[in-house]
Design a protein that fits this description.
The protein is of the alpha/beta class. It has 15 helices and six strands. The protein is 52% helix and 7% strand.
Length: 326
């Protein structure tokens, strides 16, 4: 296989051709690759891209089962295996999400916000409307979370400051959470599972399906598609693809997606009913219609977060109307 043989059938789209060229180069430079295959749309393109660039014989495809997966996701993984003639290893979570929620707390709004709230709760924070200088004296070992709460956060995470979430601070001062909040479900169901799997394998390259244009803290963590590592390099094959590039790629090469997208109308896959999804209400309706057995589980695991989010959104709308009148 040569780069010319890969590019010759590519669409006349510079971004796609550049992604193919870069992927081909990276694949040629590495001997043993691990690819995290989630069953989502970006992951679908990544798998096709890697295999199109000759990664098949040197790549292990893995799926990290969080314990809260759609039936449609498992079906789609089997479709990928049949279509490309590959095997996708199913790896169970260190701690399934239901257990993580019981031990650490439920996810709320976003990973970053949940992490900050979790840190504050660990220090018995009283949700006080005081300056950072005052609060750091009361909670001297909670600096990072207090910076978030007081809107003095600096560096690359300023875009996740609490002031970027309208009226959340005001809401929490009036309505302190009566339940534990945490982002640890992702840590023990995905992050640490992946780290352990990679550590136990003889890999020199890890691939994940992250695109810069998708937004969120995960994509904001990376500035480019490739990162050198001491023991293993990290590659994001679809990083530079925009939505229109991704759509063109799928149409040109016949990449198909999970029923979560094509029938359920979801914008994301992953853990069903995840409160990090701002459209969780729509997702719950879709779950009720297409996989109703999962609805009771979602409400049982994440119910407190759903209720708190609904109360916050109602409060936010009330404050917006009040501000508009003023």
């Amino acid at each position: 296989m040569t780069l010319d043989s890969v590019i010759v059938s590519a669409p006349d789209n510079f971004v796609i051709r550049d992604a193919l060229a870069r992927c081909f180069e990276v694949v040629q430079e590495h001997r043993h690759i691990v690819c995290s295959c989630s069953g989502g749309g970006d992951s679908d393109v990544m798998v096709d891209l890697l295999l199109r660039c000759g990664a098949g014989e040197k790549t292990d495809f893995v799926f990290f089962n969080t314990g809260l997966e759609y039936v449609a996701t498992f079906e789609h993984l089997e479709e990928i295996e049949r279509k490309y003639g590959v095997s996708i290893h199913r790896i169970d979570a260190i701690k399934p999400i239901p257990i993580c929620v019981k031990e650490y707390g439920v996810p709320f709004w976003s990973k970053f916000a949940s992490d900050m709230i979790h840190r504050l709760q660990l220090h018995n924070f009283q949700w006080e409307d005081e300056s950072f200088d005052v609060l750091i004296q009361r909670y001297p070992r909670c600096k990072t979370a207090l910076e978030w709460w007081c809107n003095v956060i600096t560096g690359s995470t300023t875009q996740y400051a609490i002031k970027r979430i309208p009226y959340l601070k005001e809401f929490m001062i009036i309505n302190p959470p009566s339940f534990r909040i945490s982002d640890k479900c992702c840590t023990y169901a995905k992050k640490k599972v992946s780290e352990r799997f990679i550590k136990n394998g003889d890999y020199d390259l890890s691939c994940i399906g992250v695109r810069q244009s998708e937004g969120g803290i995960r994509s904001a963590t990376y500035k480019t598609c490739f990162s050198d590592g001491d023991d293993i390099d990290h590659f994001r094959p679809v990083f530079w693809l925009r939505d229109n590039d991704k759509e063109e790629y799928c149409e040109h090469y016949g990449v198909t997606h999970s029923r979560c997208y094509t029938q359920y109308g979801l914008a994301r896959t992953g853990c069903f009913g995840c409160p990090f999804g701002k459209r969780f209400e729509d997702e719950l309706k879709s779950i009720e219609q297409h996989e109703p057995k999962l609805l009771r589980a979602a409400n049982s695991i994440f119910g407190e977060s759903y209720d708190y989010t609904r109360r916050y959104l109602a409060f936010r709308e009330k404050m917006k109307r009040k501000q508009k009148k003023q």
